[in-house]
Write a structure and sequence with these properties.
Length: about 110
């Protein structure tokens, strides 16, 4: 995959191990690291095709393949938070296509 389309710097967020106010271990929402991505907002025709699979898809985000990206995590770019609905790897395992929807940040 060429690096040219990967022009959006995003922060990946999810649950990490932390401690609550009493020092007990708990899961807290935090940053998991930055990555480069290509964010595509589907056109009307593409959205109609995708709406049969998933009605709430509002963005398709392409990133390099990673094993640690799972549904439910968030990507934040320019103040917009995208929730990952489905990470779809290519057959060559060189790229992940993330089906996402915009959400309010946690």
């Amino acid at each position: 995959m060429r690096a040219g389309p990967m022009r959006h710097r995003c922060m990946r967020r999810g649950y990490i191990e932390g401690k609550d106010a009493l020092g007990q271990p708990s899961k807290v929402w935090g940053d998991l690291g930055k990555l480069w991505a290509e964010i595509n907002i589907p056109s009307g025709r593409m959205y109609e095709a995708a709406s049969q699979m998933q009605v709430t898809v509002t963005a398709e985000i392409n990133i390099r393949y990673r094993k640690d990206v799972v549904a439910g995590q968030h990507l934040v770019h320019d103040g917009i938070t995208y929730e990952i609905i489905a990470p779809l790897p290519t057959n060559q395992r060189d790229m992940l296509k993330l089906m996402c929807k915009t959400v309010k940040p946690k």
